[in-house]
Amino acid sequence: MNVYDSAKMADVLAPIGFTSCSDAGSADMIILNTCHIREKASEKVYSELGRLRHLKEKRLRNEESTIIAVAGCVAQAEGEEILRRAPYVDIVLGPQTYHRLPEMVARATRAGEEKNNYGRGVLDTDFPTSQKFDYLPNEGGSQGVSAFLSVQEGCDKFCTFCVVPYTRGAEFSRPVEQILNEARCLIEKETKEITLLGQNVNAYHGLDEMGKEIGLGGLIDRLSEVHGVERIRYTTSHPNDMNKDLIRAHGQQEKLMPSLHLPVQSGSNKILQSMNRRHSVENYINVISELRNSRSDMALSSDFIVGFPGETDEDFEQTIDLIKEVKFSQAYSFKYSVRPGTPAGVMVEQVPEELKDERLFVLQDVLKKQQTEFNSSKVGNVLQVLLEKSGRHASQLIGRSQYNQAVHVNASQYYVGQVQDVYIDSVLSHTLQGSIKNHVKDIESRQKSERIEGEHV
To answer: Which structural domain, as residue segments, surrounds residue 195?
Structure first.
Protein backbone atom coordinates (compact mmCIF):
# COMPACT_ATOMS: atom_id res chain seq x y z
CA MET A 1 0.00 0.00 0.00
CA ASN A 2 2.81 2.43 0.79
CA VAL A 3 4.47 1.76 -2.56
CA TYR A 4 1.20 2.67 -4.26
CA ASP A 5 0.67 5.73 -2.05
CA SER A 6 4.22 6.94 -2.69
CA ALA A 7 3.64 6.73 -6.44
CA LYS A 8 0.41 8.73 -6.05
CA MET A 9 2.16 11.44 -4.04
CA ALA A 10 4.72 11.74 -6.82
CA ASP A 11 1.84 12.02 -9.30
CA VAL A 12 0.09 14.87 -7.47
CA LEU A 13 3.37 16.77 -7.03
CA ALA A 14 4.34 16.52 -10.72
CA PRO A 15 2.02 19.34 -11.92
CA ILE A 16 3.67 21.80 -9.53
CA GLY A 17 7.15 21.02 -10.83
CA PHE A 18 8.46 18.16 -8.72
CA THR A 19 10.18 15.12 -10.19
CA SER A 20 11.70 12.15 -8.37
CA CYS A 21 15.43 12.09 -7.63
CA SER A 22 17.67 9.44 -6.09
CA ASP A 23 19.84 11.72 -3.93
CA ALA A 24 18.26 13.20 -0.80
CA GLY A 25 21.11 15.69 -0.57
CA SER A 26 19.96 17.45 -3.73
CA ALA A 27 16.21 17.16 -3.13
CA ASP A 28 14.02 20.21 -2.60
CA MET A 29 11.49 17.98 -0.82
CA ILE A 30 11.89 14.72 1.10
CA ILE A 31 8.88 12.60 2.09
CA LEU A 32 9.07 9.77 4.61
CA ASN A 33 6.10 7.50 3.92
CA THR A 34 5.57 5.49 7.08
CA CYS A 35 3.91 2.36 8.43
CA HIS A 36 2.71 1.94 12.01
CA ILE A 37 2.11 -1.81 12.15
CA ARG A 38 5.12 -2.77 14.26
CA GLU A 39 6.63 -1.33 17.39
CA LYS A 40 9.93 -0.03 15.98
CA ALA A 41 8.35 1.80 13.05
CA SER A 42 7.91 5.18 14.75
CA GLU A 43 11.36 5.15 16.36
CA LYS A 44 12.89 4.45 12.95
CA VAL A 45 11.06 7.52 11.68
CA TYR A 46 12.58 9.74 14.36
CA SER A 47 16.03 8.28 13.74
CA GLU A 48 15.76 9.01 10.03
CA LEU A 49 14.43 12.51 10.74
CA GLY A 50 17.53 13.20 12.83
CA ARG A 51 19.69 12.38 9.82
CA LEU A 52 17.58 14.57 7.55
CA ARG A 53 17.83 17.46 10.02
CA HIS A 54 21.59 17.70 9.43
CA LEU A 55 21.04 17.52 5.68
CA LYS A 56 18.46 20.31 5.85
CA GLU A 57 20.73 22.54 7.96
CA LYS A 58 23.61 21.98 5.54
CA ARG A 59 21.45 23.03 2.61
CA LEU A 60 20.21 26.07 4.54
CA ARG A 61 23.80 27.22 4.99
CA ASN A 62 24.06 27.13 1.20
CA GLU A 63 20.79 29.11 0.97
CA GLU A 64 18.94 26.07 -0.36
CA SER A 65 15.48 25.29 0.97
CA THR A 66 14.36 21.75 1.85
CA ILE A 67 10.82 20.67 2.72
CA ILE A 68 10.70 17.62 4.98
CA ALA A 69 7.35 15.80 5.10
CA VAL A 70 6.21 12.79 7.10
CA ALA A 71 3.32 10.86 5.56
CA GLY A 72 1.47 7.64 6.25
CA CYS A 73 0.22 5.88 9.34
CA VAL A 74 2.86 7.08 11.82
CA ALA A 75 2.00 10.61 10.72
CA GLN A 76 -1.70 9.90 11.28
CA ALA A 77 -1.12 8.43 14.74
CA GLU A 78 1.55 10.83 16.02
CA GLY A 79 1.11 14.03 14.01
CA GLU A 80 1.47 16.61 16.77
CA GLU A 81 4.13 14.54 18.54
CA ILE A 82 6.25 14.53 15.38
CA LEU A 83 6.14 18.32 15.19
CA ARG A 84 7.01 18.55 18.89
CA ARG A 85 9.95 16.12 18.75
CA ALA A 86 11.17 17.24 15.33
CA PRO A 87 10.28 20.94 14.92
CA TYR A 88 12.31 21.11 11.70
CA VAL A 89 9.67 18.97 9.96
CA ASP A 90 7.58 21.06 7.58
CA ILE A 91 4.57 18.88 6.73
CA VAL A 92 2.82 16.01 8.49
CA LEU A 93 0.02 14.37 6.51
CA GLY A 94 -2.15 11.32 7.01
CA PRO A 95 -2.96 8.65 4.40
CA GLN A 96 -6.33 10.18 3.51
CA THR A 97 -4.93 13.58 2.56
CA TYR A 98 -2.37 12.90 -0.20
CA HIS A 99 -4.53 14.65 -2.79
CA ARG A 100 -4.09 17.89 -0.80
CA LEU A 101 -0.29 17.69 -0.84
CA PRO A 102 0.22 20.53 -3.39
CA GLU A 103 -1.84 22.82 -1.16
CA MET A 104 0.28 21.81 1.86
CA VAL A 105 3.47 22.55 -0.07
CA ALA A 106 2.16 26.02 -0.88
CA ARG A 107 1.29 26.63 2.80
CA ALA A 108 4.69 25.36 3.91
CA THR A 109 6.46 27.54 1.37
CA ARG A 110 4.61 30.65 2.56
CA ALA A 111 5.33 29.77 6.20
CA GLY A 112 8.99 29.18 5.36
CA GLU A 113 9.36 32.75 4.18
CA GLU A 114 8.46 33.85 7.70
CA LYS A 115 10.43 31.17 9.60
CA ASN A 116 13.73 31.05 7.71
CA ASN A 117 12.78 27.74 6.10
CA TYR A 118 13.54 25.70 9.23
CA GLY A 119 10.19 24.23 10.27
CA ARG A 120 6.83 25.29 8.81
CA GLY A 121 4.51 23.10 10.94
CA VAL A 122 1.79 22.19 8.42
CA LEU A 123 -0.36 19.39 9.89
CA ASP A 124 -3.15 17.64 7.98
CA THR A 125 -4.36 14.34 9.42
CA ASP A 126 -8.10 14.76 8.96
CA PHE A 127 -10.30 12.04 7.47
CA PRO A 128 -11.96 14.04 4.67
CA THR A 129 -15.61 13.49 3.86
CA SER A 130 -14.74 13.41 0.15
CA GLN A 131 -12.61 10.39 -0.65
CA LYS A 132 -9.09 11.12 -1.87
CA PHE A 133 -9.49 8.80 -4.88
CA ASP A 134 -11.86 11.32 -6.45
CA TYR A 135 -8.93 13.75 -6.68
CA LEU A 136 -5.90 11.52 -7.30
CA PRO A 137 -4.84 11.25 -10.96
CA ASN A 138 -5.18 7.92 -12.78
CA GLU A 139 -2.62 8.71 -15.44
CA GLY A 140 0.44 8.91 -13.21
CA GLY A 141 3.97 7.64 -13.69
CA SER A 142 4.49 4.00 -14.60
CA GLN A 143 5.07 1.51 -11.79
CA GLY A 144 6.54 -1.03 -14.20
CA VAL A 145 5.61 -4.44 -15.58
CA SER A 146 3.88 -5.35 -12.32
CA ALA A 147 1.88 -2.59 -10.64
CA PHE A 148 -0.29 -1.99 -7.58
CA LEU A 149 -3.83 -0.64 -7.76
CA SER A 150 -5.67 0.34 -4.59
CA VAL A 151 -9.34 -0.70 -4.63
CA GLN A 152 -10.22 -0.62 -0.94
CA GLU A 153 -8.97 1.17 2.15
CA GLY A 154 -9.57 1.00 5.87
CA CYS A 155 -10.76 -1.76 8.14
CA ASP A 156 -13.83 -2.43 10.29
CA LYS A 157 -12.51 -5.60 11.95
CA PHE A 158 -10.74 -3.99 14.96
CA CYS A 159 -8.33 -6.81 15.76
CA THR A 160 -7.07 -6.10 19.26
CA PHE A 161 -3.40 -5.93 18.17
CA CYS A 162 -3.85 -3.64 15.15
CA VAL A 163 -3.78 0.14 14.64
CA VAL A 164 -5.09 0.16 11.04
CA PRO A 165 -8.72 1.13 11.86
CA TYR A 166 -7.38 4.15 13.77
CA THR A 167 -4.86 5.30 11.12
CA ARG A 168 -6.64 4.33 7.87
CA GLY A 169 -10.24 4.71 8.98
CA ALA A 170 -13.38 2.78 8.13
CA GLU A 171 -13.67 0.48 5.14
CA PHE A 172 -14.18 2.23 1.83
CA SER A 173 -14.45 0.67 -1.65
CA ARG A 174 -13.76 2.56 -4.87
CA PRO A 175 -16.32 2.52 -7.71
CA VAL A 176 -15.73 -0.16 -10.34
CA GLU A 177 -15.35 2.19 -13.29
CA GLN A 178 -12.79 4.32 -11.44
CA ILE A 179 -10.69 1.20 -10.85
CA LEU A 180 -11.00 0.02 -14.45
CA ASN A 181 -9.97 3.44 -15.75
CA GLU A 182 -6.85 3.37 -13.61
CA ALA A 183 -6.12 -0.17 -14.80
CA ARG A 184 -6.36 0.99 -18.43
CA CYS A 185 -3.88 3.78 -17.69
CA LEU A 186 -1.46 1.24 -16.23
CA ILE A 187 -1.81 -1.00 -19.27
CA GLU A 188 -1.03 1.94 -21.57
CA LYS A 189 2.25 2.27 -19.65
CA GLU A 190 3.07 -1.39 -20.40
CA THR A 191 1.95 -2.91 -17.10
CA LYS A 192 1.11 -6.60 -17.52
CA GLU A 193 0.27 -7.66 -13.96
CA ILE A 194 -1.99 -5.78 -11.53
CA THR A 195 -2.12 -6.45 -7.80
CA LEU A 196 -5.33 -5.15 -6.22
CA LEU A 197 -4.69 -3.58 -2.82
CA GLY A 198 -6.65 -3.04 0.35
CA GLN A 199 -6.17 -3.26 4.08
CA ASN A 200 -9.06 -5.73 3.81
CA VAL A 201 -9.10 -6.17 0.05
CA ASN A 202 -11.60 -9.04 -0.08
CA ALA A 203 -14.08 -6.91 1.85
CA TYR A 204 -14.38 -4.89 -1.37
CA HIS A 205 -17.99 -3.93 -2.18
CA GLY A 206 -17.87 -1.20 -4.82
CA LEU A 207 -20.64 0.11 -7.07
CA ASP A 208 -20.67 -0.58 -10.80
CA GLU A 209 -21.95 1.79 -13.52
CA MET A 210 -25.55 0.77 -12.83
CA GLY A 211 -25.25 1.44 -9.10
CA LYS A 212 -25.13 -2.29 -8.31
CA GLU A 213 -22.79 -3.43 -5.55
CA ILE A 214 -20.25 -6.10 -6.50
CA GLY A 215 -17.62 -7.95 -4.50
CA LEU A 216 -13.99 -8.67 -5.24
CA GLY A 217 -14.85 -11.74 -7.32
CA GLY A 218 -17.04 -9.63 -9.59
CA LEU A 219 -14.38 -6.92 -9.81
CA ILE A 220 -11.83 -9.52 -10.89
CA ASP A 221 -14.27 -10.70 -13.58
CA ARG A 222 -14.50 -7.14 -14.91
CA LEU A 223 -10.76 -6.53 -14.70
CA SER A 224 -10.10 -9.77 -16.60
CA GLU A 225 -11.99 -8.27 -19.55
CA VAL A 226 -9.67 -5.26 -19.81
CA HIS A 227 -7.48 -5.70 -22.88
CA GLY A 228 -3.81 -6.00 -21.95
CA VAL A 229 -4.27 -7.29 -18.40
CA GLU A 230 -2.39 -10.58 -18.31
CA ARG A 231 -2.21 -11.31 -14.59
CA ILE A 232 -4.24 -10.37 -11.50
CA ARG A 233 -3.35 -10.73 -7.82
CA TYR A 234 -4.77 -9.20 -4.64
CA THR A 235 -3.63 -8.57 -1.08
CA THR A 236 -4.24 -8.52 1.89
CA SER A 237 -7.24 -10.70 2.70
CA HIS A 238 -9.23 -11.65 5.78
CA PRO A 239 -10.54 -15.22 6.18
CA ASN A 240 -14.04 -13.98 7.00
CA ASP A 241 -14.32 -12.25 3.63
CA MET A 242 -13.36 -15.26 1.47
CA ASN A 243 -16.87 -15.67 0.07
CA LYS A 244 -18.17 -18.19 -2.45
CA ASP A 245 -17.98 -15.76 -5.38
CA LEU A 246 -14.31 -14.98 -4.78
CA ILE A 247 -13.48 -18.67 -4.41
CA ARG A 248 -15.39 -19.25 -7.66
CA ALA A 249 -13.23 -16.65 -9.40
CA HIS A 250 -10.10 -18.56 -8.40
CA GLY A 251 -11.44 -21.59 -10.22
CA GLN A 252 -12.73 -19.78 -13.32
CA GLN A 253 -10.50 -16.80 -14.08
CA GLU A 254 -7.24 -17.88 -15.68
CA LYS A 255 -5.75 -14.40 -15.24
CA LEU A 256 -6.19 -14.64 -11.44
CA MET A 257 -2.95 -16.16 -10.20
CA PRO A 258 -3.11 -19.32 -8.04
CA SER A 259 -1.45 -17.71 -5.03
CA LEU A 260 -3.16 -16.17 -2.04
CA HIS A 261 -1.95 -14.40 1.08
CA LEU A 262 -4.49 -15.20 3.80
CA PRO A 263 -3.35 -14.21 7.31
CA VAL A 264 -4.50 -16.53 10.09
CA GLN A 265 -2.26 -15.12 12.90
CA SER A 266 -2.70 -18.08 15.29
CA GLY A 267 -3.76 -21.72 15.35
CA SER A 268 -5.44 -21.40 18.73
CA ASN A 269 -9.14 -20.56 18.90
CA LYS A 270 -8.60 -19.06 22.34
CA ILE A 271 -5.97 -16.66 21.00
CA LEU A 272 -8.00 -15.88 17.87
CA GLN A 273 -10.91 -14.90 20.07
CA SER A 274 -8.64 -12.72 22.21
CA MET A 275 -7.34 -11.12 19.00
CA ASN A 276 -10.96 -10.47 17.90
CA ARG A 277 -10.16 -12.14 14.58
CA ARG A 278 -13.80 -13.27 14.20
CA HIS A 279 -12.83 -16.59 12.60
CA SER A 280 -11.93 -19.95 14.09
CA VAL A 281 -9.27 -22.45 13.11
CA GLU A 282 -12.05 -24.63 11.71
CA ASN A 283 -13.36 -21.73 9.58
CA TYR A 284 -9.89 -21.12 8.21
CA ILE A 285 -9.30 -24.77 7.30
CA ASN A 286 -12.70 -24.94 5.59
CA VAL A 287 -11.84 -21.89 3.46
CA ILE A 288 -8.50 -23.47 2.49
CA SER A 289 -10.29 -26.69 1.54
CA GLU A 290 -12.80 -24.82 -0.64
CA LEU A 291 -10.02 -22.85 -2.34
CA ARG A 292 -8.07 -26.01 -3.15
CA ASN A 293 -11.24 -27.68 -4.41
CA SER A 294 -11.76 -24.68 -6.68
CA ARG A 295 -8.14 -24.68 -7.88
CA SER A 296 -5.97 -27.60 -6.84
CA ASP A 297 -2.60 -25.88 -7.32
CA MET A 298 -3.27 -22.94 -4.97
CA ALA A 299 -0.15 -21.68 -3.19
CA LEU A 300 -0.96 -20.21 0.20
CA SER A 301 0.96 -17.74 2.33
CA SER A 302 0.02 -16.29 5.70
CA ASP A 303 0.94 -14.14 8.69
CA PHE A 304 1.64 -15.41 12.21
CA ILE A 305 2.04 -13.61 15.52
CA VAL A 306 3.79 -15.47 18.33
CA GLY A 307 3.72 -14.45 21.96
CA PHE A 308 0.33 -12.74 21.88
CA PRO A 309 -0.84 -11.95 25.46
CA GLY A 310 -2.07 -15.10 27.15
CA GLU A 311 -0.49 -17.50 24.62
CA THR A 312 0.43 -20.76 26.37
CA ASP A 313 2.66 -23.59 25.19
CA GLU A 314 -0.50 -25.45 24.17
CA ASP A 315 -1.73 -22.47 22.13
CA PHE A 316 1.62 -22.29 20.38
CA GLU A 317 1.62 -26.01 19.61
CA GLN A 318 -1.83 -25.62 18.06
CA THR A 319 -0.37 -22.99 15.72
CA ILE A 320 2.38 -25.40 14.70
CA ASP A 321 -0.26 -28.10 14.10
CA LEU A 322 -2.21 -25.73 11.84
CA ILE A 323 0.90 -24.91 9.83
CA LYS A 324 1.66 -28.59 9.33
CA GLU A 325 -1.91 -29.29 8.24
CA VAL A 326 -2.25 -26.43 5.73
CA LYS A 327 1.31 -26.45 4.33
CA PHE A 328 2.24 -22.92 3.30
CA SER A 329 4.39 -21.91 0.35
CA GLN A 330 5.58 -18.86 2.27
CA ALA A 331 4.72 -16.96 5.46
CA TYR A 332 5.57 -13.87 7.48
CA SER A 333 6.01 -14.32 11.22
CA PHE A 334 6.53 -11.80 14.00
CA LYS A 335 6.80 -11.51 17.74
CA TYR A 336 3.83 -9.67 19.21
CA SER A 337 4.71 -6.05 19.95
CA VAL A 338 2.57 -3.62 21.91
CA ARG A 339 0.90 -0.96 19.81
CA PRO A 340 -0.15 2.04 21.94
CA GLY A 341 -3.88 2.61 21.93
CA THR A 342 -4.83 -0.98 21.08
CA PRO A 343 -6.75 -3.28 23.49
CA ALA A 344 -4.02 -5.95 23.42
CA GLY A 345 -1.49 -3.39 24.65
CA VAL A 346 -3.11 -3.30 28.09
CA MET A 347 -3.76 -7.03 28.47
CA VAL A 348 -2.16 -8.33 31.64
CA GLU A 349 -0.81 -11.69 30.45
CA GLN A 350 2.10 -10.37 28.39
CA VAL A 351 4.51 -13.10 27.26
CA PRO A 352 8.21 -12.68 28.20
CA GLU A 353 10.47 -11.63 25.34
CA GLU A 354 12.76 -14.65 25.78
CA LEU A 355 9.83 -17.01 25.32
CA LYS A 356 8.68 -15.07 22.26
CA ASP A 357 12.16 -15.50 20.79
CA GLU A 358 12.13 -19.25 21.41
CA ARG A 359 8.71 -19.72 19.86
CA LEU A 360 9.51 -17.55 16.86
CA PHE A 361 12.64 -19.61 16.17
CA VAL A 362 10.67 -22.88 16.24
CA LEU A 363 7.83 -21.50 14.11
CA GLN A 364 10.14 -19.99 11.49
CA ASP A 365 12.06 -23.25 11.22
CA VAL A 366 8.85 -25.12 10.36
CA LEU A 367 7.78 -22.44 7.87
CA LYS A 368 11.20 -22.34 6.21
CA LYS A 369 11.14 -26.11 5.68
CA GLN A 370 7.70 -25.85 4.09
CA GLN A 371 8.84 -23.06 1.77
CA THR A 372 11.91 -25.09 0.74
CA GLU A 373 9.75 -28.15 0.16
CA PHE A 374 7.30 -26.16 -1.97
CA ASN A 375 10.06 -24.56 -4.04
CA SER A 376 11.89 -27.86 -4.47
CA SER A 377 8.71 -29.47 -5.79
CA LYS A 378 8.92 -27.15 -8.81
CA VAL A 379 12.37 -28.35 -9.91
CA GLY A 380 12.01 -30.15 -13.23
CA ASN A 381 8.72 -28.39 -13.97
CA VAL A 382 7.89 -25.56 -16.34
CA LEU A 383 6.44 -22.44 -14.68
CA GLN A 384 4.93 -19.36 -16.26
CA VAL A 385 7.16 -16.45 -15.25
CA LEU A 386 6.53 -12.76 -15.82
CA LEU A 387 10.03 -11.33 -16.31
CA GLU A 388 10.08 -7.93 -14.62
CA LYS A 389 13.59 -6.50 -14.44
CA SER A 390 17.34 -7.04 -14.59
CA GLY A 391 19.08 -9.03 -11.88
CA ARG A 392 22.39 -8.37 -10.17
CA HIS A 393 24.44 -10.22 -12.74
CA ALA A 394 24.93 -9.56 -16.44
CA SER A 395 22.29 -11.13 -18.68
CA GLN A 396 20.18 -12.04 -15.65
CA LEU A 397 16.47 -11.28 -15.35
CA ILE A 398 14.16 -11.61 -12.35
CA GLY A 399 10.52 -12.48 -12.53
CA ARG A 400 7.65 -14.06 -10.62
CA SER A 401 6.02 -17.41 -11.21
CA GLN A 402 2.27 -17.84 -11.10
CA TYR A 403 2.80 -18.95 -7.49
CA ASN A 404 4.56 -15.65 -6.64
CA GLN A 405 8.01 -17.21 -6.36
CA ALA A 406 11.01 -15.14 -7.39
CA VAL A 407 12.70 -16.74 -10.40
CA HIS A 408 16.16 -15.92 -11.82
CA VAL A 409 16.68 -16.49 -15.54
CA ASN A 410 19.71 -15.91 -17.75
CA ALA A 411 18.24 -14.02 -20.70
CA SER A 412 18.45 -10.71 -22.54
CA GLN A 413 16.45 -7.54 -21.93
CA TYR A 414 14.31 -8.55 -24.89
CA TYR A 415 12.23 -10.71 -22.55
CA VAL A 416 11.41 -8.04 -19.95
CA GLY A 417 7.65 -7.62 -19.75
CA GLN A 418 6.93 -11.05 -21.21
CA VAL A 419 5.36 -14.11 -19.60
CA GLN A 420 7.61 -17.01 -20.56
CA ASP A 421 7.59 -20.75 -19.93
CA VAL A 422 10.61 -21.29 -17.71
CA TYR A 423 12.13 -24.69 -16.95
CA ILE A 424 13.13 -24.75 -13.28
CA ASP A 425 16.47 -26.46 -12.77
CA SER A 426 17.47 -25.50 -9.22
CA VAL A 427 16.43 -23.88 -5.93
CA LEU A 428 18.43 -21.13 -4.25
CA SER A 429 17.83 -19.96 -0.66
CA HIS A 430 14.52 -18.19 -1.35
CA THR A 431 14.36 -18.18 -5.14
CA LEU A 432 14.25 -20.48 -8.13
CA GLN A 433 16.71 -20.68 -11.02
CA GLY A 434 15.58 -21.59 -14.51
CA SER A 435 15.90 -21.16 -18.24
CA ILE A 436 13.42 -20.04 -20.88
CA LYS A 437 12.02 -23.15 -22.50
CA ASN A 438 11.95 -21.82 -26.06
CA HIS A 439 14.97 -19.55 -25.72
CA VAL A 440 16.76 -20.80 -28.87
CA LYS A 441 13.60 -20.71 -30.98
CA ASP A 442 12.89 -17.17 -29.79
CA ILE A 443 16.39 -16.02 -30.77
CA GLU A 444 16.13 -17.62 -34.23
CA SER A 445 12.68 -16.07 -34.76
CA ARG A 446 13.91 -12.63 -33.69
CA GLN A 447 16.98 -12.84 -35.94
CA LYS A 448 14.80 -13.89 -38.87
CA SER A 449 12.44 -10.96 -38.21
CA GLU A 450 15.36 -8.53 -38.06
CA ARG A 451 16.71 -9.85 -41.37
CA ILE A 452 13.35 -9.38 -43.03
CA GLU A 453 13.05 -5.84 -41.68
CA GLY A 454 16.58 -5.09 -42.95
CA GLU A 455 15.73 -6.33 -46.42
CA HIS A 456 12.62 -4.12 -46.53
CA VAL A 457 14.70 -1.10 -45.51
So the answer is: 134-376
